[in-house]
Amino acid sequence: MARSRWVVVLSSLFALAVAAGAATAAKDKDKDKGKGGSDKPSAAPPGVTLNACGCYQKGNGCVCTNKKAKCECPGECEPVGCDEKRNKEMEKEYSDAVKHAQDEDKKRDESAAKKAQDADKKRQADEAAAEKKRAEEETAADEAAAAAQARAEKDEKAAAEKAKKEKDGGKKKP
Fold first, then answer.
1. Rounded to whole angstroms, how far apart are CA atoms 98 and 104?
2. Angle formed by the axes of helices 82-172 and 2-33, to 10°?
3. What is the pLDDT of residues 59-73, one digit of tens each?
4. Domain locations in the chain?
5. Distance of CA 88 to CAs 7, 92, 119, 137, 142, Å?
6. Contact 26, 52 (CB under 8 A)
7. Closest CA to 93 of 1, 10, 157, 168
8. Torsion angle, CA of 148/150/156/158, rounded to 10 degrees?
C-alpha cells in the first residue's frame, strides 16, 4: 500500500513539473516575441525564424546565434546543456519529494509508536490501580472477617462465663 502511494505521489510531481515547465516556456515565448529573441543582432540567415532561445533548426541540428541564450525552449532547439540542466533540476525535485514523503512516513510511524506506547502505559497504570483496589478490598474483607471472628469469640467467652456463673450460681442455692 505504501509503495503505491509513492508511485502516485511521484507521478503527480513529475506531471506537475512537466506542466509547469511547458507553461513557463509558453509565457516566455510570448514575452520574447516583442524583443526579437536575442540581445544582439542575429547572425541567422535571412528568412529563418528564431525561437525564444535565439536558436533555429538547421537540418537535423540546432544552431544558436547567441552564446548567452537562456534555456527557455523545452522540446525545441536549445543551447547546449539545457536538457541536462533541466533533467538535473527535475531529479532534484524528485529526490526532494521522495525525501519529504519519507520524512512524513517516518513521522507517522513515530506518532503511531508513541500512541501505542502511551496506550500501553495507560493500560499498565489502570491494571496497577485495579490490583491496588482489589488488594485494599481484600485487606478490608480480611479485617472485617477477623473482627467478626474476634466478636464471635468474645461472645462465646461471654456466653461461657455466663453459663458458668449460672451453673456455679445454681449449685450454691441448694
1. 10
2. 140
3. 777 888 877 777 878
4. 29-80
5. 20, 6, 46, 73, 80
6. no
7. 10
8. -120
